[in-house]
Amino acid sequence: MRLPRNVESILVAIIILVLSFVSVVSIGQARNNTFAETEDFVFSDTEDYFVTFYDNGQRLTVKTTAITVGEALERAGIVLNETDIVEPKLDEKINSDNFFINIYRSHPAVIKDGKFEKYLMTASYDARTVAKEAGITVYDSDEIKLVQNRNFLEAGVAMVYEVTRNGGRTLTEEIEIPFEEETVKDYNLEPGTREVRQFGEIGTKLLTYEVFYENNVEVTRKLISEEVKREPVTRIVAVGASEIERHPLTAAMGRNRYTFRRADGVVIERQETYYDLNMSGVMLNAARTCGVEAYYAVREDGVKVDADGYVLVAANLDLYPRCSVVETSLGLGKVYDTGSFAVDNPEQFDIATDWTNRNGQ
C-alpha cells in the first residue's frame, strides 16, 4: 500500500533528523574521547598541566589535574614496586607545564663481600650504592666490580657485584643539609596569608672519617674532613602584614594609638597597652573553649604567643569574641582574655608581654 505523498515527506524528514542527530553525537563523542598512548600521543584528562613519564625507556605524556607526583602516577595507571625509585618524590607538587617524572625500575642484584653474599632488589646501577643498600660498609679504597654470574641457576638474571677490600680505613659519607626558612613581611598581601617566594632546596655535605677497629670490628670513627658539595637554598615565605605593624607597641611606648579601616569601611580608633601576668590559667581555659593547646611561649621580642604563633590578646568580648583572630601592631593575635578596660575603652587591646617581669613567663 502506498502512503500519501505528504506522509512520505514527513517520514523522510524524520529519518534525516535522526541520522543527523546520531552523526552529531558520534562526532562529539569522538572529540571528547580520552586515550593514552606512548611517544607522540597525549592522554587527555581535564584541563591543567602536561606531565611526561619516563618509565624504562617508555614515554607517556598526560594532561592532568593531579596535584602531586603520586596522584599523577595513580591516575595514569602506573603501578610501582616497593623498591622502584621515582624522581621527583611522590609528594612533590606538580606546579608547571612540561613536568617530567622519571621512574627507575628495580632489578635483582647480588653483592659479594668475602663470605658475605646478599640478594636484593635495587633501582640503582651504581656499584657503591648497591653495596650500601645491602648493608655493607664501603671504604674509600674499596673496589666494587660487576662480575660474571657464575651460578645462573642460583642467581637467575641478577647482576653480581664483588667487593675487593684494599686495606683502607677511611670512609666518606654524603649527608643532607636541611634548608632554612626566612619569613618576610609584605604589606601588599592580605594579613595572615602566606606566599612562597623561593622554594627551599636541601644541600649535601661529604664527611670523611678515619675508622678504628678492635678484633676487626669497628669501634670508633674520627671525622677528618668535611666538604659542602651543594649549598642549601633558603625557603623564603612572604607573610601578609597590616600597615599598623609599621609602628608596633613597645615597652618604652607603653600606649599605642592608631586608626585603621575595617573591611566594612568603618574607621576605628584603637588603643593598645600591655600587661605582664602568668597566662597559664588563661590558656587552660582557652584549651577548653577554643580547642587550642594549653601552652604559650615568649617570643624573642618579649611578646607572649600561643602554640600557633598568635599574639595573646585581651579585648572586649562583646565586640571581639573569645578565640577570634584580630590584627594588632605586633602581628595577628587571638582573643583569649578580657579586662575592666573594656567598659570605658571597648576598642582597646591589651597585649600579653614579658616586658615588666622579664622572667620568661
So what's the overall shape?
A: elongated
Number of domains: 4
The main sheet orders its strands as 16-17-23-20-22-21
Secondary-structure element order, N to C: HEEEHEEEEHEHEEEEEEEEEHEEEEEHE
Work out the radius of gyration: 34 Å
Name its key features.
361 residues; alpha/beta; Ubiquitin-like (UB roll); Resuscitation-promoting factor rpfb fold; 4 domains; six-stranded mixed sheet; 6 helices; 39% strand; elongated
In short:
The chain has 361 residues and is an alpha/beta fold.
What does this structure look like?
By secondary structure, the chain is of the alpha/beta class. It folds into four domains: 42-104, Ubiquitin-like (UB roll) (Roll), CATH 3.10.20; 107-168, Ubiquitin-like (UB roll) (Roll); 174-239, Resuscitation-promoting factor rpfb (Resuscitation-promoting factor rpfb fold, Single Sheet); 244-352, no CATH class. The chain is 17% helix and 39% strand. It is built from six helices and 23 strands. It has helices at residues 5-32, 69-75, 127-133, 152-155, 280-290, 341-344; strands spanning 42-44, 49-55, 58-64, 85-87, 99-104, 107-113, 116-122, 143-147, 159-164, 170-177, 181-186, 194-198, 203-214, 217-230, 235-240, 256-261, 267-275, 296-298, 304-306, 311-314, 325-328, 331-337, 349-352. It has a six-stranded mixed β-sheet with strand order 16-17-23-20-22-21. A five-stranded mixed β-sheet has the order 1-3-2-5-4, with helices on one face. It has a four-stranded mixed β-sheet with strand order 7-6-9-8, with helices on one face.
